[in-house]
Amino acid sequence: MASIAIDGPAGAGKSTIAKKVAKEMDYIYVDTGAMYRAIAYYLVTNQIDIEDEKALTAACESIEIEIRYENNAQQVYLNGENVTPYLRTEETGNMASKSSAKPPVRAALLDLQRNMAKEYNVVMDGRDIGTMVLPNAEVKIYLTASSKERANRRYKELLEKGEQPDFDKIEADIIERDERDMNRAIAPLKQAEDAVLVDSSDMSIEEVVDTILTAARKKL
């Protein structure tokens, strides 16, 4: 089985790009961020204090996450319930960024992610796929963009949903999340030494996909 690991900061377009690359390669797309968001959703809805390690460990032990593919789309099930529609809120995203640094949360998902890569050809995206989860991945990409461009993408996304977002707050949240992700003690966000750097700030989605496919086909 072959693996393509796509890492990068929040809002860089990893999920969008990874889905398209997986489709072109006829690989399975694994959205690890959605897995962390599923745990975060559970923590938020059950008001778990993530600084209480005992409570957090107990919560993680009671969580079962399953990835299913229905009509060629990834669906995330949490304890038997499809929670996919609830995973993209700002509250869940911020909790995922904080809780993903916690050892009980990481332990709960690491085996699941690695086992999927053993069973299928995968495109897997996240913060530490190439550095920690799949360090032997055949292809590693570090996908990034400026904080302003990432904030602009999120701003437009929220406008389309009928919300009235604050651009400056969105960018501030992104910068704060970058700082948190890059400086966490466990598996910080960083570019793997053998990863190809792709800055999508001034690139179209198609250009980014083509760049990654070119890199992948050289190694696979």
Features of the shown structure:
220 residues, alpha/beta, Rossmann fold, 2 domains, five-stranded parallel sheet, globular
Description:
This protein is α/β, with parallel strands linked by helices and 220 residues long. It folds into two domains: 1-27 and 121-220, P-loop containing nucleotide triphosphate hydrolases (Rossmann fold); 32-119, 3-Layer(aba) Sandwich (Rossmann fold), CATH 3.40.50. 51% of the residues lie in helices and 17% in strands. The protein is built from nine helices and eight strands. The chain has helices at 14-25, 32-45, 53-61, 90-99, 103-119, 129-133, 147-160, 167-183, 205-219; strands at residues 3-7, 28-31, 65-70, 73-78, 81-82, 122-126, 139-144, 196-199. The protein has a five-stranded parallel sheet with strand order 2-6-1-7-8, with helices on both faces. Strands 3-4-5 form a three-stranded antiparallel sheet, with helices on one face. Helix 1 (14-25) packs across helix 9 (205-219), helix 2 (32-45) packs across helix 4 and helix 2 (32-45) runs antiparallel to helix 5 (103-119). The longest helix is centred in the middle third of the chain and has 17 residues, at 103-119. It is globular. The chain starts with a strand and ends with a helix. The model has no long low-confidence stretch (mean pLDDT 94).
